[in-house]
Amino acid sequence: MNKQWKDIIIEVIQELGGEAWLQDIYEKVEEKYPEKLTKGYDKTIRDCIQRFSSDSTKYEARGDIFYSVKGLGRGIWGLNDYQNEENKNLNFTNDDSVFPEGKKKLAQHIRRERNPALINRAKELFKLKEGRVYCQSCGFDFESKYGDIGKDFIEGHHIIPISELKEGSKTRVQDIILLCSNCHSMVHRKRPWLRVDEIKTLMK
């Protein structure tokens, strides 16, 4: 059966756990569908994902199947809540499937450098002002929930995406918002990224 690229990509990402680096998607396609490996197949995969993702400017509104896990340009794509017709009535209650994991791979990526001192300084100043560290969106406090292991734990969100910064750009502490892991992930679910006030509205 001659599968469409959309269905192949869905199948591959499902096998990779619902989210995957583009490089891992390419390798899985090479393994499962060698007959599809025409010249430029990697670009075909990228274009197909973007046509079926509302995160992309190439979205064709024919089904919002894929989403950019960490924002466009990061190279990680996931599946939205999607099931094809043949899978809707499957019963997974007694599924005894096992999956091999742990294989070592060499992955090389070019990424924008982050400065950990910036996030640490943002935490310090926030704690001096507020007396504790908590999510500026939902108010979650890791230390209150998890005890000592959660002390001062929080993620720093760049208001201006690092992918949009020019080399040598300077970021101020005021450009950082402290978010819990859940709110940080939700901010990155759409492109352009959701604002913190929009996340707060969604939680009401």
Automatic annotation (TrEMBL):
Residues 122-185 form the HNH nuclease domain. It comes from the Bacteria. Keywords: Endonuclease, Hydrolase, Nuclease. The keyword Nuclease applies. GO terms for molecular function: endonuclease activity; nucleic acid binding; zinc ion binding. CDD domains: HNHc. Pfam families: HNH. This is Restriction endonuclease. It comes from Paenibacillus taichungensis. The lineage of its organism: Bacteria, Bacillati, Bacillota, Bacilli, Bacillales.
